Structures are given as C-alpha cells and as structure tokens.
Amino acid sequence: MNDRIKPYVPWINVSLIVSLNFLALYAITSVYSVMPGNSWYYSIISAIAIPGFEISHYILLENISGFGGDQIPISEFLKTVAISVIGIVTLFILATWFFTKGLLSRNADNQPSGVLWYVGTIIVILGITLSTFVGIRNSSISPASKQNEQSIETNRSLDQLRTYMTNVAFDASEWWILPYEKGGGNGSFFINEDEALTLSDLEFYNPEHPDFELIIDEILSDSTMIVKGSLINHDVEAESDRHILLEITPMNDSVFKFQTTR
Amino acid sequence: MKNKGRLLFGGILAVPIAFSISILFESLWVGYFAAFITATIWLIVLDRSIVSKSQNKSSKTLIRTFIGLLVITQLYASIQYYEQAERHGDNLNNIRTTIVSSISHLEMEKTLQHTLRHYYLETDQTELTLEDSFRELFEDRMADSNTFLHETPNDSEDMHFTYEIASPDSIILSVSATFTPGTDVVFENRSGQTGMYEARTTLTKNGVVYERQN
User: What is the pTM (predicted TM-score) of this model?
Assistant: First the structure.
C-alpha cells in the first residue's frame, strides 16, 4: 500500500461505514411503511446520533393523546428518559472518549488505534452529519410546505369567516324572533312589504371588516335568508374557495346551515 | 490512568443525574438541556485534562474540531426539535379550543334562542316566563347539580354544561372544558379545575348574550 495513503486508511474505512449507515437509513425511511421490522435500527441510530429526536417524538405523542383527552402512561415517560440518557451518554461521553483516546494513542503507522476508536468515531460523525441534516431540513421551507402553509392559512381564514357568519346568523335569528317593541321583526325578516332586515341592523356585523365581506344574497321568504361571505385581501387557488353561503332559517331548531358555493 | 477512569465514570454518572431533574419538573426538555450542558462541561474538562496535554498538534486540532462541531450541530438540531414540538403543541391546542368553543357556542346559543322563540312566538307572554318556556322545552336535559345534558350525551366528552335560573326571565347556560385549555392558565373554572376553557350564554327578554370567560 502506498505510504502516503496508509495514515488515511482508518478514515476511509470510517467514511465507508458512515456512508453505508446513511444508505441504510435512507432505505428504511423511504420504504418504512413496508419494512416495519427494520425500525429498531432506525430507532437505535436516532437515539444515539440525535438524542433530541426521542424527546420530540414523545412530546408529539403526548400532544396527540392530550388532544383526545388521554394521557400517556408514566412508563412511556420513563422509557423516553432512559433512552435519552443512554443516547446522550453514548454520544457525548463514551463516543468522544474513545475517539479522543484513539487519536491520542496512534500506532507506529501514525494511525488511530483500537476497535473502540472506530466505534466512537462513527458515532461522532453520525452525530454531526445527522443533526446537521435534521437541523437544516427542519428550518428550511420547501415549495411543497409553502403550498401547504398557504392552504392551511386559507382554511384557517375560512374557519374564521364561518365563525363570523355564525355570529351574524345568530344575530339575524334573534332579530327575527324579537317583537317590534324590542327592535326585532316579530317572526319575519320583512319590516313591511318594501323594507327588510339589513346587515347593518345586526350588532355583530362589521361593514369595515378588514378580512371578510358579507352581503345578503337573497331573502327567499319571511323566514329564510341567504348570506354570502367572502374573503378579501387573501390569495386563494380557485375563486370559488373565496366564498361561503349561509342559509338562515330561525323557524328551524338548526337555526342555519352552510351551503356549497354556487 | 486512574484519574482518567474517574473522569470517564464521572461523565457517565453526571449525565443521568442532570437529566433526572426532568422528573422533578415533569419536562423532558428541561432534563435534556440540563444533561446537554453537563455533557458540554464534561467535554471541556476532557479537553483541559487530556487533550491539551498531548504533544500531537494535529490530533489536538482534529479532536477539538470534531467535538466542537458535534456540540454545535447537536444544539442546533435540539433547538429545531424543541421549536417544532412547541409549534405542534400550540397548533393542536388551538384546534382543540376552536372546536370546543364552536360546538359549545352553537349548543348554548341554539338552546336559548329556541327558548326565546318559544316564549315570543309560541306562547302567551303575559302569563308565562322565559323559565317556563325553558322548562317546557328542556326539562329532560336538566339534571341534578344544575347539569345541562348534551343534546347527544357522550360520557367521554370534554364539555360540561350547567344551567342557572338567575330569575324567572334570566337563564344562564355555562360550559367548562375538562382538558381543553383556555387563554389564562390560572383561571379558576366552575368545575374546580384551573386554566380550562369556559364560556357562558345569558338569555333575557332582550335576547341572548354569549361571553367567553377563559
């Protein structure tokens, strides 16, 4: 073997093993759903190379359980503590110790010595590369997630519009029920033959709303009216996504129902 | 050699001890970052007591570069994981609160508007009160301890409704969530819990008023 290459042989070996680990991780994560039996390998590598992953995973499960009103058993908490402690001790104490000792006690060929140096170095390099990859992946916004964000934002705005329209519907229903002397319509949306309820008669309606615009689309009868709500100052994929129709029927116990846009 | 062995075992012992505060605070992140800081301090001690005494300059540089990179990249990834977990938690809480708030508002306001409609449009108001209308319509849902049963009863539901007849012409429906947080974490709920979502709806002859209290 070329003497110039000889000192680098251990590093080449380490690089090959780290690369194989990366390939194995890629294979497991990309076909994870059909290879669940291999998840133990992924779990061990994650727990040792990025100990924060195990905690993040536990917190996510805890949040999902809490969403449904359930609690994760204390044994799961203790299991996560144990795995995280083993991960931190292995990565920061044992691996760095073997890495350091191996490099400081080189053999006659000026190569790091001992099998444990290989183990420590592989773990340290996996710790550096995987955490860098995870950190960059989590902080960067891909075009797909940008599109998702816009979609989530649109849905959130539409939910807020529905809530706003619900409040207006309750106001309209109350106006319909209350007698004339209380400022209502006494069982009708019409005040007289030519005059009907307008949105400005309703307390919750805000004509200056910065995000939503409401109009009375149609008054179908003295006890049925349709209100149309629209998002303004908001980008949407299709124009029909911008509007919501609401049928207000105070005579029914349901009071109102949302319709698909026309 | 003996001192080096002590240093190694000291590190192996110090990390779990630092992490154990997660049990005290019931927060894994507190324990994790305490263990992370302890491990970083141990690495500095390792550098001072072993690496810095080595005569091999290239090895010293290599060790310090790799360990420095390890600490920085791990800290970076941990912060990303922490922020991601917090974001998920906040999103799920917001979704949960929005669902509970919407359902409870609908249930309470529809019930009281139904009562108001019955009172003004389906009875002779000179002889009856809002309480009479409420009892006539919802007697079967008025249970012990002022509990107001759900329209579709479900034991596992998060929302606990109560009714109160403040006067013959004033009825209050309240809701307290069991595990959905409100805005103020120290708010004392009617149910005896703290920090949970709570709202109430009041019916008078002038109409229905909905107020979110937490």
Answer: 0.78
Distance between CA atoms of A144 and A149, rounded to whole angstroms? 9
Q: ipTM exceeding 0.85?
A: no
Are A177 and B116 an interchain contact pair (Cβ–Cβ within 8 Å)? yes
Asked if the Cβ–Cβ distance from B32 to A55 is below 8 Å, we say: yes
Chain B residues whose beta carbon lies within 8 Å of the beta carbon of residue A91: 70, 74
pLDDT at A216: 95
The helix (run of H) or strand (run of E) holding residue B208 is: strand B207-212
pLDDT attached to residue A149: 74
Among the partner-chain residues B28, B81, B117, the one whose CB lies closest to the CB of A80 is B28
- Mean pLDDT for the stretch of residues A16-42: 73
Question: Quick one: which of B51, B42, B33, B45 has its CA closest to B14?
Answer: B42
Distance from CA of A21 to the nearest CA of B (A): 18
Evaluate whether A232 touches A214 at the Cβ level (below 8 Å): no
Any chain B CB within 8 A of the CB of A224? no
Residue of B nearest to A50 (CA): B74
Whether A93 shows a pLDDT value over 70: the answer reads yes
Q: What is the per-residue burial (b if ≥16 Cβ within 10 Å, else e) of A42-58?
A: beebbbbbbbbbbbbbb
pLDDT (0 to 100) of residue B155: 53
Give me the phi and psi of B116, to 5 degrees please: -60, -40
* Greater pLDDT, A8 or B175: B175
